[in-house]
Amino acid sequence: MIKDLRVYSVYNSKGKHALRVKIQTGSGFYTASIPSGTSKGKNEAKDIPMKNVIEIFPKVRGNIIGLDESDWITADEIIEQIDPSKDYRNIGISLALGISLAIAKASTNNELWRLRGAKTTYRFPFPLGNVIGGGEHGGKTAWQEFLILPHKAKNPIEATSINYEVWNIVGEELKKRKLLLGRNIENAWSSSLDDLKTLDFLSAIAEDFNVKLGIDFAASSFWNGKTYVYKGLKKELTPEKQIDAVEHVANVYDLYFLEDPLHEEDFEGFAELNRRLHGRLIVGDDLYCTNTERVARGILSKSTNSAIIKPNQFGTLFQVSKVIRAMKKVGMVPVVSHRSGETEDDWLSDLALAWGAPMIKIGNLGPDIPKHNRLIEIWHDIHEKQMASLP
Ligand code: 2PG
Ligand code: MG
What we know:
CATH class of the largest domain: Alpha Beta
Oligomer: single chain
Strand order of the largest sheet: 5-6-9-12-13-14-15-16
Largest sheet: 8 strands, mixed, barrel
Number of strands: 17
Bound molecules: 2-phosphoglyceric acid, magnesium ion
Strand content: 15-25%
């Protein structure tokens, strides 16, 4: 039984407020901390300031204390009853998800990867690592993240080590060529290269290390309502030209993963790209915001064959589990993802396993190290395991 519920204002990797929730049950204490994004989608669940959390907290606490922590689904339903707004505008997504996660951790005795019951074999996700960055995360490129995927790794230890090695080499090479500017908020390198030159530079290294390449364009961040504005290249592209340009770079650089190549309302444009780039992953992040209704619309219009899953874009674990189930039914690939303002909490790694996501988008340093380490730890703990099969 849940005996106590507390909240704390702690810090995320950007030095900003993050919410931590702690519950006490008969078996001990369980905590969960919630990250936050920088390049957020318009349709994300709402958060509220800490002073408002403190105001509504006594009411929420009163409804949670006394619940049976082993029944996490019922607990999540009660959270929905406390705030029936669907976007959590009353209690804030951080509090809703924080309580949901803390209870789920209690119900699994801090082994959240067991959330959906025992499986015969666990399939471990490959880490998608951000090595060069731009856009709203900081850097010269309009595109936000140049990503690598160690698709040949035989286990999480090898996968993490490849990502670190590539991240290191990229930094050293940029420095040697006097192109290095620094690191951005996700610890990706920023350089003086423009978008296309970055791809030229990175694809040579990716080939040496046998890793696949991906990009999170985060295209809403350079869409002005009419055109896509490339400040560095001194160019503006119409939506049609942006589709052509994305198709071109995907084919020339053999991009495996293309996230948000178009702005967040362009379901039809995504569908066109998805048709043209058959065989590559077209991934919706801001497009969907992990939201059931938006994902359902994307399924209907065949906008993408994959979607980013960020629980704090949408809701409680039960709500997010339902989105993933709907995606899997139609073969849409779920990619669980961190946020750019992360905490040291490692729940994302457990959830990637519980939900059977073949990829997890996490950085290479700072607050994402615990997420790599958690995958390595669970790999050692489980007997029947293998790396996920990639689409
Ligand atoms: C993204 C994320 C994570 P943010 O766009 O995919 O890398 O960024 O958390 O800023 O939304
Ligand atoms: Mg994104």
